[in-house]
């Protein structure tokens, strides 16, 4: 059925066919959000209408609603659904890149989502403990790594062109350069060790006045911001680093992080230095954990000593146990269980 829909009007910018059984939907431009109440409501109605038409074309009569941003919970009542899943990937109400007003709105929206969700998925123990207070079907499903992709890089040597002329040693961070990073720490260690090169691969916040934006334009000379790169190129950038770092701030937001890039670092067998947050604390046997800037520099120096094969093997073993294939199996099991539980509840209600 789905193959027959790959031709004709369905092949447009709004609904794109990826592979058998997988489609990506994009809101039409005329359904954008607005700060004006009337236009905002109109845009919302147009978006709902566009989703209806896409579901009809795909013959999806009772879909699973998988919601990550709790502010989209207002669409639930407009759809006949088989299941509502709320996927919590961050401590949204503590996100430093949101204003106080936005965080308050998110808190209200999240309270609603937790009250109506049939299944809640969280990515860290912190979130598991917090969300379990408001929903009795909350499960921990951590982030993961494409293990095959990241370990294959060890079979050949392909240094990215924009890293070939950067002086070694290279201290690398691969990920979003935003408010979760500790820029006071980064500036301190970069200035204290001018002979080291600090390479950042990822998009950076361009919000005027933000610490990330200021760092991007006023960083020390030995800091190199290479920008965002394709996912398929990420293993090459990690492989080109001597040391990989997780220089996170320590606050309520990073307390809830389950760092995806940590699994990627492990899959590549790279020495890792990080600030002391829960996500790395449980892997203290293969991560150098630092308390402050001076300790961070000391741990980098310690990590520069070639790690033992045993340490690299342990890192890769951890990565191998945290693959996306295993996560899909876990999620599939939880979805089936939640669907069965809901079906039983519906039958009992009817009786």
Which features does this protein show?
single chain; 351 residues; alpha/beta; Rossmann fold; 2 domains; 12 helices; 12 strands; disordered N terminus; disordered C terminus
Global structural class: alpha/beta
Query: Which CATH first-tier class of the largest domain would you pick?
Result: Alpha Beta
CATH topology of the largest domain: Rossmann fold
Order of helices and strands: EEHEEHEHEHEHEHEHEHEHEHHH
- Radius of gyration of CA atoms, rounded to a whole number: 23 Å
Outline the fold blueprint.
Blueprint: E1 15-19, E2 22-25, H1 37-57, E3 64-67, E4 83-88, H2 100-116, E5 119-122, H3 125-131, E6 138-140, H4 147-152, E7 170-174, H5 183-192, E8 197-201, H6 211-218, E9 223-227, H7 234-239, E10 243-246, H8 260-267, E11 272-275, H9 278-281, E12 288-290, H10 293-303, H11 309-320, H12 324-350
Helix pairs in contact: 5-10, 8-11
Question: Can you walk through the features of this model?
Answer:
By secondary structure, this protein is of the alpha/beta class. It folds into two domains: 168 residues, Rossmann fold (3-Layer(aba) Sandwich); 173 residues, 3-Layer(aba) Sandwich (Rossmann fold), CATH 3.40.50.2000. The protein has twelve helices and twelve strands. Strands 9-8-7-10-11-12 form a six-stranded parallel beta sheet, with helices on both faces. Helix 5 packs across helix 10 and helix 8 packs across helix 11. The N terminus and C terminus are likely disordered.
Question: TL;DR?
Answer:
This protein folds into 2 domains: 3-144 and 325-350, Rossmann fold; 147-319, Rossmann fold, CATH 3.40.50.2000. Helix content is 39%, strand content 15%. It has helices spanning 37-57, 100-116, 125-131, 147-152, 183-192, 211-218, 234-239, 260-267, 278-281, 293-303, 309-320, 324-350, and strands at residues 15-19, 22-25, 64-67, 83-88, 119-122, 138-140, 170-174, 197-201, 223-227, 243-246, 272-275, 288-290.
């Amino acid at each position: 059925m789905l193959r027959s829909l790959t031709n004709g009007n369905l092949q447009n910018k709004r609904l794109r066919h990826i592979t058998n059984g997988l489609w990506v939907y994009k809101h039409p431009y005329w359904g954008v959000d607005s700060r004006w109440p009337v236009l905002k409501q109109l845009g919302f109605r147009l978006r709902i209408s566009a989703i209806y038409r896409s579901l009809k074309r795909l013959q999806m009569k009772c879909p699973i609603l998988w919601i990550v941003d709790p502010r989209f919970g207002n669409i639930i009542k407009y759809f006949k659904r088989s299941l509502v899943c709320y996927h919590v990937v961050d401590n949204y109400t503590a996100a430093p890149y949101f204003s106080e007003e936005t965080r308050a709105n998110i808190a209200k929206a999240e309270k609603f989502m937790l009250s109506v969700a049939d299944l809640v998925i969280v990515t860290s123990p912190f979130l598991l403990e917090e969300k379990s207070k408001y929903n009795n079907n909350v499960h921990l499903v951590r982030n993961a790594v494409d293990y095959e992709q990241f370990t294959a890089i060890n079979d050949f040597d392909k240094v990215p062109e924009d890293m070939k002329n950067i002086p070694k040693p290279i201290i690398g961070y691969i990920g979003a350069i935003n408010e979760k990073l500790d820029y006071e720490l980064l500036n301190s260690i970069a200035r204290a060790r001018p002979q080291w090169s600090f390479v950042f691969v990822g998009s950076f916040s361009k919000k005027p006045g933000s610490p990330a934006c200021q760092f991007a334009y006023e960083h020390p000379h030995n800091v190199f911001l290479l920008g965002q790169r394709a996912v398929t190129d990420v293993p090459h950038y990690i492989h080109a680093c001597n040391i990989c770092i997780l220089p996170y701030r320590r606050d309520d937001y990073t307390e809830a992080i389950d760092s995806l890039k940590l699994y990627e670092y492990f899959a590549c067998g790279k020495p890792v230095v990080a600030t002391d947050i829960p996500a790395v604390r449980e892997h203290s046997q293969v991560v150098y954990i630092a308390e402050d800037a001076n300790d961070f520099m000391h741990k980098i120096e310690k990590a520069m000593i070639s790690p033992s094969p045993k340490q690299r093997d342990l890192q890769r073993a951890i990565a191998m146990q945290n693959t996306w294939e295993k996560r899909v199996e876990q999620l599939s099991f939880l979805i089936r269980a939640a669907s069965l539980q809901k079906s039983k509840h519906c039958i009992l209600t009817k009786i």
